[in-house]
Amino acid sequence: MYTQAIDTDPQFVATQGAMRSVGATHASHDRLLASFDQRIANDEKIEAQDWMPAAYRKTLLRQISQHAHSEVVGMLPEGNWITRAPSLRRKAILLAKVQDEGGHGLYLYSAAETLGSSRAEMLDALLEGRAKYSSIFNYPTLTWADVGCIGWLVDGAAIMNQVPLCRCSYGPYARAMIRICKEESFHQRQGFELMLALCQGSEGQKQMAQEAFNRWWWPVLMMFGPPDADSVHSTQTMQWGIKRISNDNLRQQFLDATVPQAQLLGLSIPDSDLRYDDSSGHWQCGPIQWEEFWRVVQGDGPCNRERLNTRRIAHEEGAWVREAAQAYALKQAGQQAQALG
Ligand code: BYC
């Protein structure tokens, strides 16, 4: 449980109570909103017990729960390779990485819970197809090189997107992101190292690396979200200090960092329009197929059905664990109550 949840300002409780019982007057709402806006302008952190506009709460809940779902669904493409990792060392690394992703899901569900939604409600939204998760996890991992590409490219993209989230205006989300980013950094390095080993290996290994790279390159560029002009949430979330850097700017940062890495690996980038623009000092990619992105986001990617189905089965098969944990917690609470008389 977050400690700030018990550190509640009595004046806030009184204000909330009054607003609930007699209905918020416009004046009191305007005062609260002005104070919230001022805190955002001052770059202060908003905490779970603080007043916040309903729309701020809603968009955070949407983004953090989607992020949590992405971490948990993101365990599946790589999880498929744990039994087939080519050495004990690779298996140990992959196990640790996939376990980290599960941990990220837990921190993020906990951060989202501070906004007033239960984990069961969030999971229902995922399993019933009402909540999104990252488009990238709807692509298959056909060979061992796909595991390298996920680490190098997907986690590399995740770091670009998530480091600015450590400065997010909502405290519990920002703090969760600090540890997540440290772990993502290790994930990215192990992916690059895996790709380096393949690219320095036999002709067959090099070919495997190139083919996997060809599959992941475009979906990873899409992962940053639609172009800024089509991003429905960016303007507001940037005003609120949730999103600090726009989708297109993050995509550009990723491109500039990753093209030289691909060149170092000796991989050819599957984009005949890719060029370095001397005047801006940036790499420019060819047109992104946004129809493919929206198709995947709307549930019609190569693995959408498989991923959700696997999560549904895991949820059903895990029911006994949840029931046992609840029964144990109830028993403990009963024993404690008895001991206190
Ligand atoms: N996939 O207005 P926009 C990881 C949706 S986990 C699916 O720009 P926003 C990892 C968007 O939700 C990586 N949907 O949205 C884990 C919105 O639809 P709704 C996950 C997408 O929120 C395991 C609509 O398109 N990272 O790295 O301002 C192993 C319009 O978009 C996507 C996070 O979740 C997408 N790619 O910006 C390895 C980070 N992009 O909700 C690695 C936190 C957009 O209105 N999230 N949509 O129905 C964010 O930073 C932002 O939510 C996004 C999107 C940049 C993703």
Task: Write up what this structure looks like.
The protein has 341 residues and is mostly helical. The protein has helices at 10-22, 26-41, 54-73, 75-79, 88-113, 119-127, 144-162, 171-199, 203-222, 234-239, 247-265, 290-300, 304-317, 319-339, and strands at residues 275-277, 282-284. It has a two-stranded antiparallel sheet. A hairpin with a 4-residue loop joins β1 and β2. α5 runs antiparallel to α8, α7 (144-162) packs parallel to α9 (203-222) and α7 (144-162) packs antiparallel against α11. The chain starts with 9 loop residues before the first helix and ends with a helix. Residues 1-15 and 17-22 have low confidence and may be disordered. The structure holds benzoyl coenzyme A. Benzoyl coenzyme A is lined by residues 62-63, 66-67, 70-71, 74, 101, 132, 134-135, 154-155, 158, 161, 223-226, 231-234, 237, 243, 247, 297.
Detail the topology: elements first, then pairings.
Elements: H1 10-22, H2 26-41, H3 54-73, H4 75-79, H5 88-113, H6 119-127, H7 144-162, H8 171-199, H9 203-222, H10 234-239, H11 247-265, E1 275-277, E2 282-284, H12 290-300, H13 304-317, H14 319-339
Antiparallel strand pairs: 1-2
Helix pairs in contact: 3-5, 5-8, 7-8, 7-9, 7-11
The chain binds benzoyl coenzyme A.
